[in-house]
Amino acid sequence: MTRSSIFLAADGAGYELQMGRWSRRLAPKFIKFVSIKNADSVLDVGCGTGSLTSTLALNPNIRALRGVDFSAAYIEHATHNNDDSRVQFQVGDACALPFGNQEFDHSLSMLVLQFIAQPEKAVSEMRRVTRPGGTVAAATWDSRGGFVWLRMFWDTAAMLDPEAVVRRAKVCARPMTRPGDLERAWKAAGLTNVVQDMLTNLMDFALFEDFWRPMEGKDGPYAEYVRALTPDAKAVFREKMALAYLDGEADGPRSYAATSWVVKGTVPF
């Protein structure tokens, strides 16, 4: 299988700590936006550890759910934690979905397209496997201005490391994360009734250690960057991140806004 994702994926539990706990907060709002009331079959493209799929499964009027992700580790984690017979997870490439034409009533993707090298292919594939009249929808983080945690990380890194300036620019300008990106992609794919909007939820941390610990893992661009630092550079970076988190006050709970772009469109008859 050709790997089209640029996301570093190694451990399901590590991803849950870094992003899964927040994607579970986004999932209900995203599903409400998409407005799926009932369906014979729904596909979750780039399902990760199953945040969106498991939330969709709370609806008893969806008869079957399929989650696909390029990471075998994430699929293993999702499968291990699933006890719903309607749900199946499998390894697969978003740019070459292992399903037939018009196999699903609806196809959704949450917090994935920005990590696909050719996201337009993934959108085209989602349309291909969705029946006429069905919905194709996606959500991506607003990396430039709406994701406070991300900006804290890369702005702090950029003050210390010239190479991080370049990486920050790439992260903040990723396709499908800027205003209008999703809407343009959906219309280019020939989808109709296209609607783009924004959703915001909070990322709540108990202490700085709760904020920092995911960056010590093996998953995602944050951990990838931290793991490449020398021990001394890592210590300095951690110290500066702590200053940004504490804001001159005692360690304790903090909440940061996380805004995502969302889009939906209909497969024409």
- What is the straight-line distance between the termini? 31 Å
Q: What average pLDDT do the residues reach? A: 95
Total domains: 1
Strand residue percentage? 15-25%
| Global geometry | globular
Instruction: Give the name of the CATH architecture.
Output: 3-Layer(aba) Sandwich
Q: And the CATH topology?
A: Rossmann fold
Structural class: alpha/beta
Strand order across the largest sheet: 3-2-1-4-5-7-6
Q: Which parts are unreliable, with pLDDT below 50 for 5 consecutive residues or more?
A: none
Name the CATH class.
Alpha Beta
Total helical segments: 10
Please trace the helix and strand order, writing H or E for each element.
HEHEHEEHEHHHEHHHE
Total DSSP E strands:
7
Nearest-angstrom radius of gyration?
19 Å
Major sheet details: 7 strands, mixed
According to CATH, the homologous superfamily is Vaccinia Virus protein VP39
Characterize the structure shown.
This protein has 269 residues and is α/β, with parallel strands linked by helices. 41% of the residues lie in helices and 20% in strands. It has 10 helices and 7 strands. The protein has a 7-stranded mixed beta sheet. Helix 4 (119-128) links the parallel strand 4 and strand 5 (135-141). Helix 5 (148-160) packs antiparallel against helix 6 (162-172) and helix 5 (148-160) packs across helix 10 (231-246). It is globular and about 55 Å long. The two termini are 31 Å apart.
